Fold this protein.
Amino acid sequence: MFGQANVLAAGQAGFPPSVEDFYLPSILPWGAHDSYWFTKITAMVWIAVGVLIIFFLATYRNPQLVPTKKQWFAESIYGFVRNNIAVDMIGHAGVRFAPYFTTLFCFVLLTNAFAIIPFFQISPNSHIAFPAILAIISYVLFNYIGIKQHGFVKYFKNSLIPPAPWYILPLLIPIELFSTFIVRPFSLAVRLFANMFAGHMLLLVFTLGGFAMLSANAWLAPVSVLSWVMTIALTFLEFLVICLQAYVFTVLTASYVQGALAEEH
Amino acid sequence: MYFLAAEGGESTHNPIIPLWQEVVVGSVAFAVLCFVLMKFVFPRMEQTFQARVDAIEGGIKRAEAAQAEANQLLEQYRAQLAEARTDAAKIRDDARADAEGIRQDILAKAREESDRVIQAGKDALAAERATIVRELRAEVGTIAVDLASKIVGESLADEARRKGTVDRFLSGLESTGAR
């Protein structure tokens, strides 16, 4: 906090960037550092929700059998998740999960994309709260589906007891318990969070690093330019990560649901 | 805050600990998004997909039905054509057979007629010949008797009648001629 104040007083960004760079002052009340209800991050979440709702309602207000361009675009997003994730992973039973998977995919993709959209330039998913919510929903979803499908006892028997010789089960059951019921939500949340956090951190390092070198010594200007070129290159990498992580989150959720629905281990 | 800042140097936030305010905001926002999209948008997309599939499958089914009907009609026409050809051939064969039959009939009748005419001629000739022979025989007898009477005398006529002389003579003549 003091560091930031110093940075603002000195008229230059701090280098190296720290965790504090992820916690911007709140918008309402303006400039407060300990209020989190209405910050840039939460505003972006609401914007993402609003944009997605408006986009889908507007394009699908009056659906035609022969689609218009916009309708086709909205349908191809849904069709992609439905056919390439839900049906591919789960089979025909996956169609009923397609609406949730598509909502999840669109939300993660758009909130991730804020990381490289000018003026947003940070993803809400670099705060672990949002990936954690989505991971908990996935966790509850696949366990609920599994219990509903098989009943409580059979579901846990299916999940915990792999088809292995009895003498190895004492080793396998704790591993299964740990990996399925404890690690899954954490890995899901942390994977998305860490990717977005690291991506933002990398862009900060190269952008601020350029300024830091320039202000330290004018002779370092060519290196600053190189640093900013790296920023541009890393933005492309970030774009890849954004799409990939949205896809991975959805695919893993689908895979967990598939595992819960499966008859045998 | 101050406490944390004092303890941890610059860092007052732990990025691994979620801010509960953000959890609340995120949950509400995501719930709103899920509600709207999963209730009003994606089910309608599913319906549209289904309608599209129905339309395409319906079109294919209609085309298949039309094709099947066309094939059936074609088969029917072919069958009818084949039947007509068979009928025509049969009629031709019948006509030919009839003509042959009529010809045979006419020939048979003509032959019969000619046989009849020939037979009638023969019969008539035979009858005529028999008549002539009978008449001649009577006449020859009469003439002979007359001539003999004229030569021998009138009484001979009764005598000849009584004894069959003339007949005997004539029979002798005939047998001599036959021999």
Chain A touches chain B through 51 residues (CB under 8 Å).
